[in-house]
Automatic annotation (TrEMBL), chain B:
InterPro entries: NADH_Q_OxRdtase_chain4, NADH_Q_OxRdtase_chainM/4, NADH_UbQ_OxRdtase, ND/Mrp_TM. It is a multi-pass membrane protein. It catalyses: a plastoquinone + NADPH + (n+1) H(+)(in) = a plastoquinol + NADP(+) + n H(+)(out); a plastoquinone + NADH + (n+1) H(+)(in) = a plastoquinol + NAD(+) + n H(+)(out). It comes from Hyella patelloides LEGE 07179. This is NAD(P)H-quinone oxidoreductase chain 4. The gene is ndhD. GO terms for cellular component: endomembrane system; plasma membrane-derived thylakoid membrane. NDH-1 shuttles electrons from NAD(P)H, via FMN and iron-sulfur (Fe-S) centers, to quinones in the respiratory chain. The immediate electron acceptor for the enzyme in this species is believed to be plastoquinone. Couples the redox reaction to proton translocation (for every two electrons transferred, four hydrogen ions are translocated across the cytoplasmic membrane), and thus conserves the redox energy in a proton gradient. Residues 132-409 form the NADH:quinone oxidoreductase/Mrp antiporter transmembrane domain.
Length: 675, 531
C-alpha cells in the first residue's frame, strides 16, 4: 500500500507525458501524427484510465482509514527561504482525484464520437490530456503556491480549449475574455497568498490557518487585515467558479467544443474554486466576516444564474448559467460552514452536469446533420423539439440529469441540494429563502429546456425560424458573424439521428451516479460526511446531533414542492401550451429584457473596463510619444545647437579632450573631499 | 589545466575568428554562416566546459581570475573573472548569440560583414560581464555598441538611421556618466586604481556615493531601460532585424541590470539604501506604464519592445528588495527574460518574413495556414505572461514574495507597491493575448493572403524556439538548477546591502518577531524618501 502512495505523483505526471509525446509528434511529424487519430485517442484514454485506477486505489485505501500521506521536495530557495512542492493525499484529495479521472475518462471516450470529423482531433486529445494533468496536480497540491501554479495552468488549458476553433471570431474573443477575467481573480489570489505569507510565514494550509487564528486572537494582526487577505484569496474562486461579479466568462466559454464544456466548464475546473475554499477552510474559519461574504456571494450568484437561464435559447448557454447557479449553491454552502454539504453537491453536480452537457453535445451533433455546422442554428432550442423520437438514449439520460438537478428524490441532486438548504435554514433563513426560490427557478428552466428540446414537434426544417435566427445573430454579433453564415447551413439529413456508441455509452454510464450517488449522503446514514468533513471537526457528529426525521421531511417537502411547481409551470408553458410565455414577457418587459440581456453585465463591463482600458492605454502611448520621446528629441536639437557652439572649442586634439575630462574629474574629487 | 586562461579564451576566440572572415572565399554567404555557427558553438562549448570544471558554486567570490598588466602607465590591467552575478549571464550570452547566428540564416545582404559583426559582438558581450577593471569595463561597454550600431544602421528597416543614431546617442550619452564616475572612483582616496574590488573597498563619503550612484543609474537606466530613458528601445527594436533583436532583448538589456547589481548595489551600498525606494517606484512605473503602452501599440515589434521594458521593471524591484529572495529573483528574471525576450523577437522576425508587415491591422487569421507558428507564438506568449511551469513565473513570484516580506520598507509602502505590481499581472495577458487574437485568430485576412504566401515554420525555426523553450520550461519546473548557481553570491550581496540599512542592523540584534510579522514600531527605511 505504501508503494501506491509513493507513486501517487504518477497520476498527474502520466497524462502530462502523454500530452507531451503527442505534442512533440504534432510539431515534428505533423501529418503522420494527425493520421494516427484513433491510435492517439486510445493511447490518451488508456493513460487517463490508468490514472483513474490509481485514484480509485488511493480512494479505497483512504476509506479504509489510511492516514494522510504527503511528500515534498525543495523546489526553490534563496538564502533562508525555502519553498517545497510535492503532493498530499487525504480524504478530500482522493475524492477529487476520483471525480476528475472518472469524468475525464468518460468525456474522452465521448470525444471520439463528437470530434470524429474534426481536423483537430489529435490536437484536441493532447489538450484534454494536458488539462487532466493540471487539474489532477491541482487537487493534490499541499500548499498555496502549488495551488496557484496549477490554478493558472488549468486556466491556460481552458484558454486553449475555448479557442480550439480559433478561426471563429467568437471563440477568439471568448478565450481571451476567459483568461483575462481569470487573471483578475488570480490577481486577488496572488495578493492574498502573499499577505498570508507575510503574516504567517508559511504557505501550508494547516500552518497558515493555525497561525492566523493565533495572530487574530492575540491581536497581532487586525481582524480587518485578516479578512482582507481571506477575501483576496477568495477572489480566485470567484473568477474560476464564475461567481458574481467575475462570472461573465463562463457563458462565453461555451464557444469551445462541447466535451470541454462538460469536463472543464461544468464538472472539474469551475468546481476548483469550491475545492480551494475547502482547502483554505482552516484559514477562513478564523475570519467569520469573510465566511459571510462568501455565503452571500454564492447565494446571489445562484439566483443571478438561474434568473438569466430562464430566457436563454442556446442550449449550451442555458446549461452554462445553470452551472453558474449550482456553483453558487456550493459556494454558499462553504460560506455557511457546511463543508461537507458543499463538497457533496460538488460531487453529484460534477456527474449530472457533465452528463447534461454531453447530452447537449449529442443533441447538437444530431442537429448538425440537419442544419449543418453552424452554431447559431445547431444550438438553438427554437429549432429543436421532438428529439426524443430520434434520440431516445440522449432524451432519457437528459431527463435523469434534469430530475437530479431539480432535486427530485431519489435522484442524486436531491440529497446534496437538500443538505445545503437544510443547513442554510439553520444558519440564516434569508439565505435559505434565496436558495429555495432558486430551486424553483432551476426546475422551471431545466424543464423548459427539456420540453423545448425533446418534446413536441421537430422544428429543425422550418426555414422561417432559421432565417429569423440567422438575421438576429447577424445583428447581435455585428458584421463578423456574416462569415460564419457562409458556412454550410444545409445538412444532409431531414431528421436528426441518435449519436454513435462512443457518445451514448458515457451518457448511460454517467446516468448511474446521477441517479444513485445521492444515497451515500442520506441524512440518516451520511457516509459522505463521515468521510469528508471539515478539518478539525469531530467525526461522530451524527452521534451528537441525532437525525430528526420531522425536520428533514419539512425541509425536503418544501424543496420538492417548489421544484414541482417549477416543473408544472414549464409543462403548462412549453408542453401543453396553456400559458403563452411571450405574453408574460410582454407583461413584464423590463424583467424579461434584464434576464435576456444577462443583467447587462457584458455591456457595462465593456463600456467601463474594456473601453476605459483602451482609452487609457492610447493616452499613455500618446504621452510616451509626444512628451517623453518629444523631450528627448528636443534635447537632440539642443545638443545640435550646442555642438555648433562647441565646434570652436574642439580642436581635434585628443590630448585636449583628455585634459577636459581630467579637469572635470579633478573638480569632482576636490569638491567631495571637502564635503 | 587549472591555470588555463579560460575567460580570455572565450572572449578572444570569437573576435580572432571574426578577423579571418574576410579571407574566406565565399560569394553567397553560405560558407560564412556555417563558419560563424561553428565558432559560436565551439565558444559556447568552451564556456560550458570551463564553468563545469573550474567554477565552484559554493564560493561567492570571483573565480577563474586572470590579471595581466596591459598599459602600466595608465595602470590598465586586463583582468577578468566571474562570480555568481556574471557567470550565468556569460552562459546566457554564449547561448543566445549562437542561436542568433542561427536565426540570421536568411541574411544575404553583405553576409561577410554581418557575421563579422556578430562574432565581434559575441566576444564583446562576454567581456562586459567578465572584466573586473573599471576602465576596461568602460572600454568594452563602448566597443560593444559599435557592432550594434552598424547592424542597426545597415540591416535595419526604413527608419534605421534615425533609430541607430538615437541608440548610439542615448547609450553613448549614458556611458559618459560611467566614465566620469569611474574616474572619480579611481582617483578618489590615497591610491589610484581601476580594479573593481579595490574600488569597491574604498570608503566614500555618503554625498559622493549618492552622486556616483545617480551617475551610474542614468547610464544603466538607459540600458535596462528605466522610464523615462526608454524611448530608444522601441525605435531600435522597431527597425532591427531578428538576430539583432535577439541580442538586444536577450543580452544588451541585461547589461544594465548586471551593472546595477555589480556597481550601484555592490560598490555603493550606502547610497543604495537611499535610492532603493526610487528604484522600486521606477520599477512599478516601468511595469504598468510600459504594459499600457504596449497594449496601445499596433506595431508588433514595438509591442514586444514595450513588453520587454515592462518585464525589466521587476528586475529593478528585485534589486531594491533587500531580501535574498528578491535579489535572487532579479537575477532569475534577467536570465528568464533573456530567453523569453529572444524567443518572442525571433517569432516576430519569423512572422515578418512571411507577412511582410508588422501592423496588426493588416494581419488576422494567419494561424490558419501556419499551425506551427501558431503553436510557437502561443507558447512564447504564455512564457512571457508568466505562466507557471515556465521561468518567468518563478522569477516574478520570487520578486513578489521577496518584496512583500522585505523588512526594509513600511507595511503601507509594501502593500501599495505589491498591489501595483500585481496590476501588471493583469495587464500582461491583456496585451499579449489581444496581440495573439488579432494576429493569429479569427478568419483569414483576405487582402494579406492574396499577395503573400504563408508558409509554415521550417525545421530551423522550430529548432531555435525549442532550444529557447527547453531552458525556459526547465527553470520553470525546477528553478533550483539556476538559482543555486548564483545563490552564494547574491546572498553575500544581500548581506552587504542589509548591513547598510540602519534599521535592519538594529533588527538583527533584537529578538525577531514570530513568523514574518514585523512589528510596526521598527524604524523604516523609506522615511528617507522624503529627503
Amino acid at each position: 500500500m505504501e508503494q501506491l502512495y509513493q507513486y501517487a505523483w504518477l497520476i498527474p505526471v502520466l497524462p502530462l507525458l502523454g500530452a507531451m509525446l503527442v505534442g512533440i509528434g504534432l510539431i515534428s511529424v505533423n501529418k503522420a501524427t494527425n493520421n494516427l487519430r484513433q491510435i492517439v485517442a486510445v493511447f490518451i484514454v488508456s493513460i487517463i484510465g490508468t490514472a483513474m485506477v490509481l485514484s480509485f486505489a488511493l480512494f479505497w485505501s483512504q476509506i479504509h482509514g489510511h492516514e494522510t500521506y504527503g511528500r515534498a521536495i525543495e523546489w526553490a530557495s534563496a538564502g533562508d527561504f525555502h519553498l517545497q512542492v510535492g503532493y498530499t493525499i487525504d480524504h478530500l484529495a482522493s475524492l477529487m482525484l476520483v471525480i476528475v479521472t472518472t469524468v475525464a475518462f468518460l468525456v474522452m471516450i465521448y470525444t471520439d464520437g463528437y470530434m470524429a470529423h474534426d481536423p483537430g482531433y489529435v490536437r484536441f486529445y493532447a489538450y484534454l490530456s494536458i488539462f487532466s494533468s493540471s487539474m489532477l496536480g491541482l487537487v493534490i497540491s499541499p500548499n498555496l503556491v502549488q495551488i496557484y501554479i496549477f490554478w493558472e495552468l488549468v486556466g491556460m488549458c481552458s484558454y486553449l480549449l475555448i479557442g480550439f476553433w480559433y478561426d471563429r471570431k467568437a471563440a477568439a474573443d471568448a478565450c481571451q475574455k476567459a483568461f483575462v477575467t481569470n487573471r483578475v481573480g488570480d490577481f486577488g489570489l496572488l495578493l492574498g497568498m502573499l499577505g498570508l505569507y507575510w503574516a504567517t510565514g508559511s504557505f501550508d494550509f494547516a500552518v497558515v490557518g493555525e497561525r492566523l487564528e493565533e495572530l487574530v486572537t492575540s491581536g497581532a494582526l487586525s481582524a480587518g487585515l485578516a479578512t482582507l487577505f481571506a477575501v483576496l484569496v477568495f477572489l480566485g474562486p470567484v473568477a474560476k467558479s464564475a461567481q458574481f461579479p467575475l462570472h461573465v466568462w463562463l457563458p462565453d466559454a461555451m464557444e469551445g467544443p462541447t466535451p470541454i464544456s462538460a469536463l472543464i466548464h461544468a464538472a472539474t475546473m469551475v468546481a476548483a474554486g469550491v475545492f480551494l475554499i475547502a482547502r483554505i477552510y482552516p484559514i477562513l474559519e478564523s475570519v467569520p466576516t469573510a465566511m459571510t461574504i462568501i455565503a452571500w456571494t454564492g447565494a446571489f450568484t445562484a439566483f443571478l444564474g438561474a434568473s438569466i437561464a430562464l430566457t436563454q435559447n442556446d442550449i449550451k448557454k442555458g446549461l452554462a448559467y445553470s452551472t453558474m447557479s449550482q456553483l453558487g449553491y456550493m459556494v454558499m454552502a462553504m460560506g455557511l460552514g457546511s463543508y461537507s454539504a458543499g463538497l457533496f453537491h460538488l460531487m453529484t453536480h460534477a456527474y449530472f452536469k457533465a452528463m447534461l452537457f454531453l447530452c447537449s453535445g449529442s443533441v447538437i451533433h444530431g442537429m448538425e446533420a440537419v442544419v449543418g455546422h453552424n452554431a447559431v442554428l445547431a444550438q438553438d432550442m427554437r429549432l429543436m423539439g421532438g428529439l426524443r423520437k430520434y434520440m431516445p438514449i440522449t432524451a432519457g439520460t437528459f431527463l435523469i440529469g434534469n430530475l437530479a438537478i431539480c432535486g427530485i428524490p431519489p435522484f442524486a441532486g436531491f440529497w446534496s441540494k437538500d443538505e445545503i438548504l437544510g443547513q442554510a435554514f439553520t444558519a440564516n433563513p434569508v439565505l435559505w429563502g434565496v436558495g429555495w426560490a432558486t430551486a424553483g427557478l432551476t426546475a422551471f428552466y431545466m424543464f423548459r429546456m427539456y420540453f423545448m428540446t425533446f418534446e413536441g414537434e421537430f422544428r429543425g426544417n422550418d426555414e422561417g425560424i432559421r432565417q429569423q435566427l440567422l438575421t438576429s445573430a447577424g445583428v447581435a454579433f455585428g458584421p463578423g458573424a456574416m462569415d460564419a453564415e457562409e458556412g454550410a447551413t444545409h445538412g444532409h439529413d431531414e431528421s436528426p439521428h441518435e449519436s454513435p456508441l462512443t457518445m451514448a455509452l458515457p451518457l448511460v454510464l454517467l446516468a448511474v451516479p446521477s441517479f444513485a450517488l445521492g444515497w451515500i449522503g442520506r441524512p440518516w446514514a451520511n457516509y459522505f460526511e463521515e468521510f469528508i468533513h471539515a478539518p478539525g471537526e469531530i467525526v461522530s457528529e451524527m452521534g451528537i446531533e441525532p437525525f430528526d426525521f420531522q425536520e428533514f421531511a419539512i425541509m425536503a417537502g418544501l424543496s420538492v414542492a417548489i421544484a414541482t411547481v417549477g416543473i408544472i409551470v414549464a409543462y403548462l408553458m412549453y408542453r401543453a401550451k396553456k400559458i403563452d410565455p411571450a405574453a408574460i414577457a410582454k407583461k413584464y418587459p423590463a424583467l424579461y429584457r434584464l434576464s435576456l440581456n444577462k443583467w447587462y453585465f457584458d455591456e457595462i463591463y465593456y463600456n467601463v473596463f474594456i473601453v476605459g482600458c483602451r482609452r487609457l492605454a492610447r493616452q499613455i502611448m500618446e504621452v510616451d510619444y509626444r512628451v517623453v520621446d518629444g523631450a528627448v528629441n528636443l534635447t537632440g536639437l539642443a545638443t545640435l545647437l550646442s555642438g555648433e557652439g562647441l565646434k570652436y572649442l574642439e580642436t581635434g586634439r585628443a590630448q585636449f579632450y583628455a585634459l577636459i575630462v581630467f579637469a572635470a574629474v579633478l573638480g569632482f574629487v576636490l569638491v567631495f573631499s571637502i564635503v | 589545466m587549472a591555470n588555463f586562461p579560460w575567460l580570455t579564451t572565450v572572449i578572444l576566440f570569437p573576435i580572432v575568428a571574426s578577423l579571418l572572415i574576410p579571407f574566406i572565399p565565399d560569394k553567397d554567404g553560405k560558407t560564412v554562416r556555417w563558419y560563424s555557427l561553428t565558432v559560436g558553438l565551439i565558444d559556447f562549448a568552451i564556456i560550458v566546459y570551463a564553468f563545469c570544471n573550474g567554477y565552484d558554486l559554493s564560493n561567492p567570490n570571483l573565480q577563474l581570475v586572470e590579471s595581466y598588466t596591459w598599459i602600466p602607465q595608465l595602470d590598465l590591467k586586463w583582468s577578468v573573472g566571474v562570480d555568481g552575478l556574471s557567470m550565468p549571464l556569460v552562459v546566457l550570452t554564449g547561448f543566445i548569440t549562437t542561436l542568433a547566428i542561427m536565426a540570421a540564416w536568411p541574411v544575404t545582404f553583405k553576409p561577410k560583414l554581418f557575421y563579422f559583426l556578430m562574432l565581434a559582438m559575441y566576444g564583446g558581450q562576454i567581456a562586459v560581464f567578465a572584466v573586473q577593471d573599471m576602465l576596461l569595463f568602460f572600454l568594452v561597454w563602448e566597443l560593444e555598441l559599435v557592432p550594434v550600431y552598424l547592424i542597426l544602421s545597415i540591416w535595419g528597416g526604413k527608419k534605421r538611421l534615425y533609430a541607430a543614431t538615437k541608440f548610439i546617442l542615448y547609450t553613448a550619452g549614458g556611458s559618459l556618466f560611467i566614465l566620469i564616475a569611474a574616474l572619480t572612483m579611481a582617483f578618489y582616496g590615497d591610491n589610484v586604481t581601476f580594479d573593481m574590488s579595490a574600488i569597491a573597498a574604498k570608503d566614500y563619503s555618503l554625498n559622493l556615493q549618492l552622486l556616483l550612484y545617480s551617475g551610474f543609474l542614468i547610464a544603466y537606466g538607459v540600458k535596462l531601460p528605466i522610464f523615462p530613458l526608454h524611448t530608444w528601445l522601441p525605435d531600435a527594436h522597431g527597425e532591427a532585424t531578428a538576430p539583432a533583436h535577439m541580442l538586444l532583448a536577450g543580452i544588451l538589456l541585461k547589461m544594465g541590470g548586471y551593472a546595477l547589481l555589480r556597481m550601484n548595489a555592490g560598490m555603493l551600498p550606502d547610497a543604495h539604501a537611499f535610492f532603493a525606494p526610487v528604484l522600486v517606484i521606477l520599477g512599478v512605473v516601468n511595469i504598468i506604464y510600459a504594459a499600457l503602452t504596449s497594449f496601445a501599440q499596433r506595431n508588433l515589434k514595438r509591442k514586444i519592445a514595450y513588453s520587454s521594458i515592462s518585464h525589466m521593471g521587476f528586475v529593478l524591484i528585485g534589486i531594491a528588495s533587500f531580501t535574498d529572495l528578491g535579489v535572487s529573483g532579479a537575477m532569475l528574471q534577467m536570465i528568464s527574460h533573456g530567453l523569453i525576450g529572444a524567443s518572442l523577437f525571433f517569432m516576430v522576425g519569423a512572422t515578418y518574413d512571411r507577412t511582410h508587415t508588422l501592423m496588426l491591422d493588416e494581419m488576422g487569421g494567419v494561424g490558419q495556414k501556419m499551425k506551427k507558428v501558431f503553436a510557437m507564438w502561443t507558447t512564447c506568449s504564455m512564457a512571457s505572461l508568466a505562466l507557471p511551469g515556465m521561468s518567468g513565473f518563478v522569477a516574478e513570484l520570487m520578486i513578489f514574495v521577496g518584496f512583500a516580506t522585505s523588512d526594509a520598507y513600511s507595511n503601507t509602502f509594501r502593500i501599495i507597491i505589491v498591489s501595483l505590481m500585481a496590476v501588471g499581472v493583469i495587464l500582461t495577458p491583456i496585451y499579449l493575448l489581444s496581440m495573439l487574437r488579432e494576429m493569429l485568430y479569427g478568419p483569414e485576412n483576405k487582402e494579406l493572403v492574396e499577395h503573400t504566401k504563408l508558409v509554415d515554420a521550417e525545421p530551423r525555426e522550430v529548432f531555435i524556439i525549442a532550444c529557447l523553450l527547453i531552458p525556459i520550461i526547465g527553470i520553470g519546473l525546477y528553478p533550483k538548477i539556476v538559482t543555486q548557481v548564483y545563490d552564494s553570491t547574491t546572498h553575500q550581496l544581500t548581506a552587504l546591502l542589509r548591513n547598510s540599512v540602519p534599521s535592519l542592523m538594529q533588527e538583527a540584534s533584537t529578538a525577531s518577531n514570530p513568523y514574518n510579522l514585523i512589528s510596526t514600531t521598527a524604524p523604516e527605511v523609506e522615511t528617507v524618501v522624503n529627503h
